[in-house]
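Me: I'm a chemist; would you kindly supply a protein sequence with its structure tokens?

Assistant:
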Amino acid sequence: MEDDGTKCSAVTVAVLVLAGCHLSLTLSKVPPPHDGGGQPARVEPAGHVASLAATVLAAYVASAACAGGGRIRLSLGSLLAEARRTWARPAATALYIELLTTAMASLLLTLRAFLAAAASAGGATAGLMAVSGSVALVGWLGPVLFAHSDIACRMSLVVAAAEEGYGGAAAVRRAEALVAGRRAHGIAIGLLASAIEQAPTWLCGDGVPALVVGPAVLAAKIVACCACSAFYYDCRRRHDKVSASRSTAKCCQVLWDRDLYVTDESEEEFGGSFECFRLT
């Protein structure tokens, strides 16, 4: 999926999955599953946009806080100016991650609805066909929709805020390259960040006013993003050291090969200068 010229992009696949899930549920008249006995949760566009904006803001604050070893790298004015100049990169990254996450959830919920309908209809053959089709579909779309780890998706927002030229899928791939070889540490950081983000919901409950919950959620996002940002800069330093070592080794190899080539040419010239003294 990384070669956009030969394979469909992940965005195209995600959009097709969303459209296919909606169309299949509409045509089949299968009710979409939802948790709880009440009505399904409604999506509030304003709240969703505010959540994405808070995520992007948290990425800038965390990147500035962790870039200088714990010292704020930019003043508030410089931070706002930097965010105003480069906001499109982390925004595109957040939308890309949100699209993949929504497509994954929609696919799993749709398969769950069809499996439940097949189980309620009875018949081992229908159930077996539904399970086999679900497994095949997930196995086919899995390398696209489930290609990125949780920590890479979280780190990609910091990548987009901190590095020029990375946004959307490129930022996620950059984060995957940085976290390679440190999966266990990345899983722990991802779980910690997820727990921090859920802390306001656990502590505040349902009766707390939005004026209190909003700042608490933003603060939790910033703290969680700081944990991911610190891990990002640590991975980046390690990655840069490895790249520098490989570059040094490659330069030494090139110099060594060139010296051998020059030595061989000198020996050939030295041997050729005595050819006139050969006995005939």
In short: The chain has a mean pLDDT of 78. Residues 10-32+45-239 form one domain.
